[in-house]
């Protein structure tokens, strides 16, 4: 009842507010090509009941008799105004009429033609137990179907092989977990996907990663994003808050203290913004990252000043006992096999070597995981991991969670709600936009830093016997016995 009331209210208000715009689009459709304003295709609704869907006509008259039901961006049946509408999903807006009439909901599985419904397995027929909708998880994942089908000699076959299997799994995910809160999240992500087609909420990634066999990973857009660490990395020129800059200065001040007159390897160094600074205190500095784009950017900046290579932290290409210090800063959670990294670090370190790990604290109450991560270790887990591999361990916390001040309390509450609803942006680009809205002008991250002591925070020794909830960042230092 609540969902239906919301559907009626939102569709009525939407139609009223958008009416001038909808009338303008209708006029452009009539002016651009012969035929009706609306396309009234037959679709299968709730409980298998057929209905006629409202869409602005984006193709020539009788397009269904000329070609198949799947359409690529290059389909010659699409009219010029239709191409524009499809790009921004404007042709879907008249479906608010279907929502008002009760054939559809704002959020729900996209309605299918009878041919594909006839192919449903008994499990997939559960999709017909809810009203079809304008958007759902599958719509966000497949926000540009025409681009995926472009260039295909048989768009219908391409749809059945590349899109339909994942689409059905995501629709079943919605049916099994639909709620008002999930609908709110889906509406929010649908809006964001209009501007960032690579957006992949956690719910979608869980399904797409589980479905894709190894030999087909490259065909799934979600897996291409999985490997693009540049989208979640602090890059030169990115806008940063004062606290974010302070975190960078703090971690490298601590790293420099350990690196003095030593041979140092920084793994997952990204664009290497502190490699030059470390070089001023260390005997030797090597930077490495698994992402070739980031390695290229760092190499382009430093030239011959710093040795930089593409390196997998789980397979370090150096002989035993090569380095005195290994740094892994804000990256351990991206590693599929942390134990393998620790074993490699232990092998490459000299007998009195040191490993320094910096990580976001997963035990803070408003913790929000980054995309593409495997596991966030707690302070206790990091300590035990190092102890099990014969390191003496020191643990530190930094950046206490703010509790005083009205603004701090409001921001903390907003963050907790956003995290719980999975509405926090995942890529750096969207995070920067949100930070600008909340904090105003941001300072750019430099291509190379020189640590400013005044921007550094205090590191506080912590005890992992109880959950460490009061700090945003944790540090673990493991020292090998001489």
What is this structure, in a nutshell?
This protein is α/β, with parallel strands linked by helices and about 475 residues long. The protein folds into two domains: about 1-225, no CATH class; about 230-480, Vaccinia Virus protein VP39 (Rossmann fold). It has helices at about 1-30, 65, 80-85, 95-100, 115, 135-140, 145-150, 155-175, 180-195, 200-210, 220-225, 240-260, 275-280, 290-300, 340-350, 380-390, 405-420, 430-440, and strands spanning about 40, 40-45, 50, 55, 105, 135, 240, 265, 285-290, 305-310, 325-330, 350-360, 390-400, 445, 460, 470-480.
Note down, in words, how this protein is organized.
Residues 213-228 have low confidence and may be disordered. This protein has 482 residues and is α/β, with parallel strands linked by helices. The protein starts with a helix and ends with a strand. β9 (284-289), α14 (292-302) and β10 form a beta-alpha-beta unit. The strands form five sheets. An eight-stranded mixed β-sheet has the order 10-9-8-11-12-16-13-15. The chain folds into two domains: 2-226, no CATH class; 231-480, 3-Layer(aba) Sandwich (Rossmann fold). The protein has helices at 2-32, 63-66, 80-87, 95-101, 114-117, 137-141, 145-149, 155-177, 180-193, 202-211, 221-226, 242-259, 275-279, 292-302, 338-348, 379-388, 406-420, 428-439, and strands at 38-39, 42-44, 50-52, 55-56, 105-107, 133-135, 239-240, 263-267, 284-289, 307-310, 323-329, 349-360, 391-400, 443-444, 460-461, 471-480.
């Amino acid at each position: 009842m609540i969902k239906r009331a919301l559907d009626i209210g939102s569709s009525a208000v939407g139609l009223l507010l958008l009416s001038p715009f909808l009338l303008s689009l209708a006029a452009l459709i009539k002016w651009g090509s012969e035929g009706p304003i609306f396309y009234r295709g037959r679709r299968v609704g709730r409980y298998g009941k057929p209905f006629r869907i409202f869409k602005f006509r984006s193709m020539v008259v009788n397009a269904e008799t000329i070609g198949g039901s799947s359409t690529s961006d290059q389909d010659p049946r699409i009219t010029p105004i239709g191409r524009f509408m499809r790009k921004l999903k404007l042709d879907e807006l008249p479906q608010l009429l279907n929502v008002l009439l009760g054939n559809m909901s704002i959020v729900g599985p996209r309605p299918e033609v009878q041919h594909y419904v006839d192919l449903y397995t008994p499990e997939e027929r559960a999709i017909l137990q809810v009203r079809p909708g304008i958007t759902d998880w599958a719509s966000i994942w497949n926000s540009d179907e025409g681009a995926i089908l472009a260039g295909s000699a048989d768009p219908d076959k391409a749809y059945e092989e590349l899109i339909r299997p994942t689409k059905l799994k995501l629709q079943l995910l919605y049916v099994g977990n639909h709620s008002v809160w999930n609908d709110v999240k889906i509406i929010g992500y649908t809006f964001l996907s209009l501007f960032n087609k690579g957006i992949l909420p956690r719910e979608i990634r869980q399904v797409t990663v589980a479905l894709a066999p190894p030999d087909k990973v490259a065909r799934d857009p979600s897996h291409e994003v999985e490997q693009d660490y540049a989208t979640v990395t602090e890059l030169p020129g990115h806008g940063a808050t004062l606290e974010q800059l302070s975190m960078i200065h703090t971690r490298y001040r601590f790293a420099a203290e350990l690196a003095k007159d030593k041979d140092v390897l920084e793994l997952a160094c990204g664009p290497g913004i502190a490699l030059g600074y470390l070089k001023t205190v260390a005997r030797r500095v090597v930077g490495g990252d698994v992402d070739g784009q980031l390695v290229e950017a760092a190499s382009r900046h430093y030239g011959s000043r710093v040795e930089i290579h593409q390196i997998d932290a789980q397979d370090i290409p150096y002989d035993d006992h090569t380095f005195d210090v290994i740094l892994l800063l804000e990256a351990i959670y991206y590693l599929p096999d942390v134990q393998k990294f620790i074993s490699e670090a232990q092998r490459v370190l000299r007998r009195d070597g040191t490993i320094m790990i910096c990580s976001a604290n997963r035990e803070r109450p408003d913790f929000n995981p980054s995309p593409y991560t495997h596991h966030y270790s707690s302070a206790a887990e990091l300590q035990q991991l190092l102890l099990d591999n014969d390191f003496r361990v020191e643990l530190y916390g930094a950046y206490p969670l703010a509790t005083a001040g009205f603004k701090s309390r409001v921001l903390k509450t907003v963050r907790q709600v956003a995290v719980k609803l999975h509405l926090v942006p995942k890529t750096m680009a969207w995070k920067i936009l949100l930070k600008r809205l909340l904090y105003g002008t941001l300072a750019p991250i430099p291509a190379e830093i020189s640590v400013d002591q005044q921007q550094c925070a205090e590191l506080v020794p912590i005890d992992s016997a109880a959950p460490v909830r009061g700090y945003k960042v944790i540090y673990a230092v493991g020292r090998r016995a001489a």
